[in-house]
Design goal:
By secondary structure, the chain is of the alpha+beta class. It has 2 domains: 5-76, Glutaredoxin (3-Layer(aba) Sandwich); 89-192, Glutathione S-transferase Yfyf (Class Pi), Chain A, domain 2 (Up-down Bundle). The chain has 9 helices and 4 strands; from the N terminus they run βαβαββααααααα. A 4-stranded mixed β-sheet has the order 2-1-3-4, with helices on one face. The chain is globular, with a radius of gyration of 17 Å. The relative contact order is 0.13. The structure holds glutathione. Glutathione binds at residues 12-13, 38, 50-53, 65-66, 102, 106, 110.
Amino acid sequence: MTKWRHYWRPGTGSLVTTIAFAWAGVEPEVVRVAEASQRDPDFLALNPAAQVPAAVMPDGTILAETSAILLAIDEAHPGSGLLPPLGSPTRATALRWLMFLAVAGYPAILRYYYADRFTADASEAGLDGVRAAASRELDRILAIFAAAMEGPFLLGEKACIVDVYCIMLADWHAPAREMPVFQALRRAIMAHPVIGPAWRRHEESSE
Ligand SMILES: N[C@@H](CCC(=O)N[C@@H](CS)C(=O)NCC(=O)O)C(=O)O
């Protein structure tokens, strides 16, 4: 059978998609995309937004957008535990917070790390202003998420892929890395028999 293909690069949103594949027991063909190659015509044909992660499904369907890839993996492998079962109230809650992180959290990270794209004032002061506002917004978004967590995971005793997404964003935002709530969630996630090893493999691949 044709395999999934996963376009990834360490230190990016492809951390959570890498973990999702491992969690679902899928071994995709992997294509490591150097940052400098993301604007090559071959990659742009796949994802015109020039961003990773991207994926090709076994039937040839091209995917981008981290949350869309996570949902497609979960739907192709129901019961893998990435998300609660289809139709359950806990799934609706998980989707609410997945989308919250995707539309409010990830974009604030991008404003912080690609500040020049979000201002016409490319002076250091202009860029610092964008970063300061993005950082404040990340504080706010992550605090809202933390307040929604049942603990130790978002949905209580059972981890879902949204927990991984959250810690990925928190790791990219220095003040959140120091917050006990996210340190506890990170510890709980890393103790998971599949997530912990997959996360460590991804980190090692950037060395
Ligand atoms: N909306 C996209 C954002 C993906 C994204 O921004 N990826 C970053 C790496 S974390 C990237 O490829 N950036 C390169 C660029 O934007 O030029 C998603 O949710 O997957």
